[in-house]
Q: What sequence folds into this?
């Protein structure tokens, strides 16, 4: 009878140990999936921020050009009309 109790206790301890290992394994898998999703979200946000910066720069350039034309009555010449002077002797 004492042997049966010892075997039952051993079986319960073994099952609890394997349960702990299994739960840790599941936790590790969940953490890996969370890291992957965080990386994807980070990539998406960085791409969105980059596009927003580009759009902001283009909009600022357009607004500055409009403001120059409006307030000063001047236009930025095209690249073909610009004359470069070499002042180095």
A:
């Amino acid at each position: 009878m004492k042997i049966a109790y010892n075997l039952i206790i051993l079986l319960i301890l073994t099952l609890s140990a394997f349960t702990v290992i299994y739960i840790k394994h599941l936790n590790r898998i969940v953490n890996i999936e969370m890291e992957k999703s965080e990386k994807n979200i980070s990539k998406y946000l960085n791409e969105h921020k980059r596009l927003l910066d580009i759009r902001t720069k283009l909009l600022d350039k357009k607004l500055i050009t409009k403001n120059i034309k409006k307030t000063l009555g001047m236009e930025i010449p095209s690249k073909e009309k610009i004359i470069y002077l070499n002042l180095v002797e």
